[in-house]
User: What shape does this take?
Amino acid sequence: MKLTDTLQSNEQSNDWADDEFGQADFGDARLTQRLAVLARKISQAPHCSFPQALDAATLKAAYRFFDNPKVDLKGVLAPHIGQTLERIRQLPVVLVPQDTSEFNLTHLPATEGLVLLCHKRKYRSIELQ
Assistant: This one.
């Protein structure tokens, strides 16, 4: 059985955003629908910031959505995490690669908060994970 067969074997709607975020519980179905709309729009330009990816009306709606006191990070991520875990359960092996990047900032001696990352070369940097 191929990976695509396994993932497609579940009953899915034709709309990935509804599948992914339809279980979001903000206490208002309109907010759940708005999250799916935003996910669809943002997915069309994932490399862009919100102002670059969204037209003016959708951008204003996004700001209103995220400013709503019923909307929080947990509420946005919970359905996505749940769907991700469900996809993982369908597979015999899941690889989770990680990339840790380093920047050499030795040329910024006055910058505070940098850490010594490489003891042999003794350069200061900030670690991004």
